[in-house]
Structures are given as structure tokens and as C-alpha cells.
Amino acid sequence: MKNIIQNIGANLLITILGLVGSIILARWLGPSQRGVFAAIILIPSTLQYFVNLGLSSATVYFSAQADINKHHIWNSLIIMAIAQSIIGLLLGWGIIDFYLPKYAENAIQLGHLYLMTIPLGLFGMYATYMLQGASYFKTTNILKCIVPIGYCVGIVTLKIWGILSITNLVYLQLFIQSCYLLIALWFLYRFILQRFLFYFDHALSRKMLNYGMRVWFGDVSQLANSRIDQFLIGALLNSHDLGIYTIAVSTAGFTGVIANAVRTIIVPTVAGENTFSKQMESTVLFFKSYWIFSLLFHFIFALSISILIPLVFGNEYSESIALCQILIIGSLFINAKTVLGGGIQGMGFPEIISIVEFIGMILSLVLSYFLIKTNGLIGVSMAISSAYFSQFIGLIIFADKKEISYKNLLFPSKKEINYYLRFLKTLFYG
């Protein structure tokens, strides 16, 4: 419980900092320029996760196992990250040339430059996930805060100096990602590796790739779910609409704070259990505790959006209110899927996540394409929320087949409800 609370605190700080950065840019750039910047960073940030072949999840899974040589894990990641970076840079160059010509004159050049975040992000991500798998949660939380803190400070600094522009924002991101990588490597060698010792373990690399590929299909589908909407808006509508929708997405994304914090703990915790029954018991306990609080949290947050968005981002973003409320409904289910999926992944069934993510991806693509033409931004929001709901239901069905009863997950007993109510009372009143 202590680790979960610490991770919730860290994720809350990260999310708040992310929102602060988004608020500052929204107010200082305006919807159209905010949309241009979103279009520039969309392709590189997507490709960073596309080319990793599920190795981020594999890194956590194998690093959590005490009998595996951590040097062998890191050396395998070095070789594979180099290959992934080359592929990402080549793919990104071509996609950017196709996607960005409709925007500002220098958008293509800035998009090419932003591609350098792919290798920086991959190596930093793998180092962080090794630390997470080894249960260095405090260190992982520190690393997660580097980019949002640096981004907020950097944006304010650029504004004070009078040089806030999309070009300088790209340079700022490259600088922050470089700092993040160096600090992540320092922690990795201090706490786990101690020294550089290169040995490429072919057998371990194959195991990591095998596990990663089982996760990757789902990761790519999840990535597509989270980016299809913005990609279609950028291609079919305009930068103003993309700017409005980006604010709705980033605000609704605040609801993922608790889910992501729980997932950070649940994957290595469940993976570290030595029997299937204990893994299943931990998965149910984590999910049920999250689910009860999540229902109340999402309901309250959705009601507050009509006040928060105009107050925080400005009246020019009022169009985002309805979009955000629709997306929050979807977030209730996608966040629940995140937590339950973390437990199932830790149990060694990542292919289940891949299947439900693929179902969601197809629904997102088909519904978003048709609804954006008939209902615009509202249609896209409805499509994404529908896809999120389908993923959650799909995961519940598969979990039930793995002996995790949907009744046990979704319908807590009266005794359990009373326990959590007492916990809340203790938490708020002492």
C-alpha cells in the first residue's frame, strides 16, 4: 500500500506538471499554434513506442526475476535499441514528409529534428524500466518527474526570455530528453549494474523478444487507439480543431493518474509471486481496490469539467468541455483495463492484452473515420470512448476464462465496501 500511495503521488505530480505545461502552451500559443506543435511531435512520439517491440514490458518482467543476470538484460537492450532507433528514424522521416506539408513552412524540418527523441527516449525508457522491474520505485518516480518538470521550467523560461516558439520548444524537448537519459543511466549503473560488462546473451534476448512480441501487438494497438483520433483530426480537419481536441485529451488523461500508479506496482508484484494462485489473488486484490475508488473519482471529475476547462485553459477552449466529458466516460473503462491488464501481464498472459487492444484499435479506426465526417470532434470522442469500453469488456471476458471471475472483480461484497469506506474515512479524517 505504501508503494502504491507513493506512486500515486508521483503520478499525480507528473500529471499536474503535464497539465501545467499544456495550460501554459494553450494560453500562450492559442488553439491553432498548439495544434501545429501537436502535429509535429505526433509521429516521433508514436514511433518511439511502435519500434520498441514490446521490450519495455519485457524489461520490467525479466528484471523482476532475481535469477536473471541484469548485465545480460541491459546488453541485449543496447543492441536491440540501436536497431530500433535506426528503423524509427527511417520510418519517421518518410511519414513526416507525407503528413506535415499542410502546416507551417518549417514544420517538416522540425519534425525531422524531433525524430532524435526516438533513440534518446528508447535508451532512457529501458533504463527506467529495469529499475522499475527491480523494485526501485522511488528512483523510478524521480526519473518520471524529470521530463515534466524540465518541460514546465523550460516553457516559462522561454516565455520570460521572449523566445517562446515552436522551434525552441523542439530544442527544449531534445535537451530535456538528453538529460533524462544521462540521469537514468547514472541510476541504473549505481543501483544495479555498478560497472560496464558486455556480454550478449542470445538465449535471453530471444526470450525477451518472444515475451515482448506477445505484448507488442497489444502495445501497438493501444498506441493506435490513443493516436488514431489525433492523426485523423490532423489529416482531415485543421490545426484549430486539433488544438481544441488536444486539450480535451490531456484533461481527460488526468484520470489515469491512479491507474498508472497501480500498474507500476502490480506488474512486478504479481510477476514476483511464486504460484499461480497467489498471482491471481494479488491481481484481484489490486483491481478491486482500484475499481471502487475509480467509479467515484471519474464521476466527480466529469462534473467539474464544465468549470475547470474555461477557468484553467481560457474561454477559447470551451469547445473542449463536451469532448472531455465524453472521453472521461471512456477513461473509466480504459483505466480499469490498464490495472487489470497489468495483473494479467504479470501472470504471464500478455497475449490477452494484445487481443483486446487489437479489437479496440479496429473499432477506433473504423468508428473514428466515419464519425469524424458526420459529427466532427464529438464523433471522434464517441468513437474512442466506445473502443475503450469494448477493450475493458473483452479483458473481463478473457480474465473470466483464466479463472478470474468477473463477479469477483466487478461486484465487491458488502463487507469489502464497508472496509473501503472505513479506509476513506481514516484517510480523510484520521
Strand content: under 5%
> How would you sum up the major sheet?
none
Number of domains in the coordinates? Answer: 1
Distance between the termini: 17 Å
Low-pLDDT segments: none
SS-based class: mainly alpha
DSSP E strands, number: 0
| Helical fraction | over 70%
How would you sum up the global shape?
A: globular
Mean pLDDT: 84
Provide a count of the helices.
Answer: 15
Chart the SSEs and their pairings:
Layout: H1 2-50, H2 55-63, H3 70-99, H4 107-114, H5 117-133, H6 137-160, H7 166-193, H8 202-236, H9 239-252, H10 256-271, H11 276-313, H12 320-346, H13 350-401, H14 406-410, H15 414-429
State the main characteristics.
430 residues, mainly alpha, 86% helix, globular
Question: Mind explaining what this structure looks like?
Answer:
This protein is mainly α and 430 residues long. The protein has one domain. The chain is 86% helix and 0% strand. The protein contains 15 helices and no strands. Helix 5 packs parallel to helix 7, helix 9 packs across helix 12 and helix 10 packs antiparallel against helix 11. The longest helix has 52 residues. It is globular, with a radius of gyration of 21 Å.
